[in-house]
């Protein structure tokens, strides 16, 4: 049962942002896709994921900090570490070699059945000797283990929050609603969808991976795209169709546009946690055809006396 703080390498008072930052760094290093020949890395990745899950659950983190559960989320022993009847005798004051408490005598010449004492502590034993009565209830049974799934989400689906169908280990499928602000490394918890245990089922942890796109790239909450335009469109300007993560829209190209000019389409980026959206940044790239005789003849009869590199000192 590893300490989740030590597993992630953060202090006990670490903020949620620090915990998330530490997890992302470790998850990137230990990701199974990067360590296919290293089973220890896969095991470590699972440990890091479980530690992150516990520490980002406010209730579980508080219970762990109070010592109520261990690093695996299971109830902690009410007796702490070590000890037992003999350990108690080493601390305590019966000259006969044992000690007495609440009507029981341990050690010495007639030890009672120790299992009866522990049974009584957890609520099932009849009082013995001096009428010992327990205030402890039965120890809660541990839940089953959490199960981590990696979900590959297409770029456009991540940007538009398109629901994803997930097949769990039991063969059942669910439609998963992506959260605003979703990005690579985002984790989602499905309570009770993990492995079965004596105290109920653990949780399913969905680790999101956003797939690359063939022409869109992500820049924070914005989406970037390089848009090819013709020389005529650059010189004369005009409206052209441009793809977005939602659907194609019309974009006006200013007259005299040069390659590298970036135009902004408001609200066409990723959904933010506050409910707003980023933008799409369109960088215009003039596409010159090769071996175009007409264009070559035009350039041969046209002169541009400017030095566009003068600002660079050349």
Protein model, in words:
Helix 2 (16-30) packs antiparallel against helix 3 (39-55). The protein is 25% helix and 20% strand. The strands form 5 sheets. The chain has a 4-stranded mixed sheet with strand order 8-9-13-12. Among the domains are: 146-212, HSP40/DNAj peptide-binding domain (Sandwich); 217-290, HSP40/DNAj peptide-binding domain. The chain has helices at 4-8, 16-30, 39-55, 58-65, 85-91, 114-121, 155-160, 231-236, 293-300, and strands at residues 99-101, 104-106, 147-153, 164-167, 173-176, 187-190, 204-210, 217-219, 222-229, 238-242, 249-253, 262-265, 280-286. It starts with a helix and ends in a 14-residue tail after the last helix. It is built from 9 helices and 13 strands. It has 314 residues and is an alpha+beta fold. A hairpin with a 2-residue loop joins strand 8 and strand 9.
Outline of the structure:
With 314 residues, the chain is of the alpha+beta class. It has helices spanning 4-8, 16-30, 39-55, 58-65, 85-91, 114-121, 155-160, 231-236, 293-300, and strands at 99-101, 104-106, 147-153, 164-167, 173-176, 187-190, 204-210, 217-219, 222-229, 238-242, 249-253, 262-265, 280-286.
Rounded mean pLDDT is 81
What is the helical fraction, as a range of percent?
Answer: 25-40%
| CATH architectural grouping of the domain at 217-290 | Sandwich
Q: Spell out the CATH superfamily of the domain at 217-290.
A: Urease metallochaperone UreE, N-terminal domain
Written as H for each helix and E for each strand, in order along the chain, the element string is HHHHHEEHEHEEEEEEHEEEEH
Radius of gyration, whole Å: 33 Å
Q: What is the makeup of the main sheet?
A: 4 strands, mixed
The CATH class assignment of the domain at 217-290 is: Mainly Beta
Question: Which geometry do the CA atoms define?
Answer: elongated
Structural class: alpha+beta
Q: How many helices does DSSP assign?
A: 9
* Strand ordering within the main sheet: 8-9-13-12
> How far do the termini sit from each other?
66 Å
CATH fold-level topology of the domain at 217-290: HSP40/DNAj peptide-binding domain
């Amino acid at each position: 049962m590893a300490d989740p703080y030590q597993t992630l390498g953060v202090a006990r008072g670490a903020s949620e942002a620090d915990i998330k930052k530490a997890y992302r760094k470790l998850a990137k290093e230990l990701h199974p896709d990067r360590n296919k020949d290293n089973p220890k890395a896969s095991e470590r990745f699972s440990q890091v994921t479980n530690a992150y899950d516990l520490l980002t659950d406010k209730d579980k983190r508080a219970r762990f900090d109070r010592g109520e559960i261990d690093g695996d989320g299971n109830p902690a022993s009410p007796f702490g570490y070590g000890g037992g009847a003999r350990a108690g005798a080493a601390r305590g004051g019966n000259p006969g070699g044992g000690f007495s408490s609440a009507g029981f005598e341990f050690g010495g010449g007639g030890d009672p059945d120790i299992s009866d004492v522990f049974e009584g502590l957890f609520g099932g034993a009849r009082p013995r000797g001096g009428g010992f009565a327990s205030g402890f209830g039965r120890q809660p049974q541990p839940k089953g283990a959490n199960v981590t799934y990696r979900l590959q989400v297409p770029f456009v689906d991540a940007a538009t929050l398109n629901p994803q169908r997930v097949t769990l280990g039991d063969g059942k499928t669910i439609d998963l609603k992506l959260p605003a602000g979703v990005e690579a490394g985002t984790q989602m918890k499905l309570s009770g969808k993990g492995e079965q245990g004596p105290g109920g089922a653990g949780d399913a942890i969905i680790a999101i991976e956003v797939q690359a796109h063939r022409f869109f790239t992500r820049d924070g909450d914005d989406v970037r795209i390089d848009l090819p335009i013709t020389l005529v469109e650059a010189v004369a300007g005009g409206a052209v169709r441009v793809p977005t993560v939602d659907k194609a829209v019309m974009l006006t190209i200013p007259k005299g546009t040069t390659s590298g000019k970036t135009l902004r389409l408001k609200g066409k980026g990723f959904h933010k946690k506050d409910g707003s959206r980023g933008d799409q940044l369109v960088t215009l790239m003039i596409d010159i055809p090769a071996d175009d005789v007409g264009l070559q003849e035009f350039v041969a009869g046209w002169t541009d006396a400017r030095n566009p590199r003068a600002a660079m000192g050349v």
